[in-house]
Amino acid sequence: MIPVELRAGDHYPAVIVGGGQAGLSVSWHLVQAGVRHVVIERDSAAHEWRDGRWDNFTLVTPNWHCRLPGYAYDGPDPDGFMTRDEVYAWVHGYADTFDAPLAEGVEVRRVDRRDDGVFVVQTSAGEITADAVTSATGGYHRPITPSWAEDLPARIVQMHSHHYRNAGQLPGTVLVVGTGQSGTQIAEDLHLEGRQVHLAVGRAPRVARFYRGRDCMTWLADMGVYDVPVGEQAAAKRAATNHYVTGRDGGRDIDLRAFAAQGMGLHGRAIGIVDGILAFDDTLTSNLDRADSVAESIKNDIDAYIEREGIDAPTEERYRPVWTPDGGPTHLDLDEIDAVVWAIGFRADWSWLGDLDVLDAGGHPVHEHGMTAVPGFSFVGLPWLHTWGSGRFHAIARDAEHVAAGVVEASRGVLAVR
Length: 418
Hints:
Strands 1, 2, 3, 6, 7, 8, 9 and 22 form an 8-stranded mixed beta sheet that branches. Strands 11-20-12-13-16 form a 5-stranded parallel beta sheet. The protein is built from 9 helices and 22 strands. The chain has helices spanning about 20-35, 45-50, 85-95, 180-190, 215-220, 235-240, 255-260, 285-310, 395-415; strands at about 1-5, 10-15, 35-40, 65-70, 70, 100-105, 110-115, 120-125, 125-135, 140-145, 155-160, 175, 195-200, 210, 215, 265, 270-275, 275-280, 330-335, 340, 345, 375-380. The protein is globular and about 65 Å long. A hairpin with a 5-residue loop joins strand 7 and strand 8. Helix 1 packs across helix 9. It is α/β, with parallel strands linked by helices.
């Protein structure tokens, strides 16, 4: 890594906003192409892997998925799952392998484009200009909490999943709201610490960790599932929740029914405080059934692939539910809980994009494989940027190569007419 001190009035052929794995991947390609550029990072390179995950966090994708341009995982456990600190060290170390030009501790506050095509980048270090700008900030910016959260008694500790680190932060009985990857893993983390946990279960799907002798994500990668372009399903895919599973302790399923059999309280979707109690709807049964059906449908696809390819793989009995709910809505008296973890996602904040015409009416980025209709402006690192693999290490290198090629063309094209 080469530390860069931004100065007001500086001009760069290319500016990358965000110093995580996506931004660094584009930077690698620009270094190879000889394009002078700077990666601007509000905090420090790869800091979200260290600062935005809980203590017992692990990747849910196998380590062999971790491959950035010119930099692949080469550790002793390719089928294992790196811990939080291991992922941070791996991504942070990437910047040192190719002398990434990085301006850390600098916030990009606004980007506009002048009539002559030059971008004006307003930063906490002063105003600079660029011929091309790439957003590598991801799409998860502002933690979401429901409007009725403010109606909970002051004694109940509230925390978003982004700020959860360990059970010691929270008192007594904990309600976790949301069953995406973070919600289910945090609920498990608390459960394993011996805490009484209640979990509001949403419509997130699940996937088995292993099936027929291999990790399911390895099967899916071999099947090309992560390589299928999103195409016209972009809006639907963008709203989809990732399948929950864990890499903890070498990897295993997250079976919410098993947690319930062990004493965890499962409920439907949390709908708010009604007559002084915390109310849940009656979707628990359908949500658990849906998650199971998705997991089993993935196994069906794997079975078909094994048969089609003539692969010699062990057979395996299918999943059988170990617990079923009674049905109907449930509720909790507010004095039954001491803390709430909100794991219902994030809201994107693109306010720094100024007047750039790169968002649709709903505020979502409009692009084709990262390239926008505004010449020289691009996105990288977004979920479903091009394929299912786009939001994962598995396909970042491919997306970065495509976006970087557009950045090279834009920077050289502008320079050629000056």
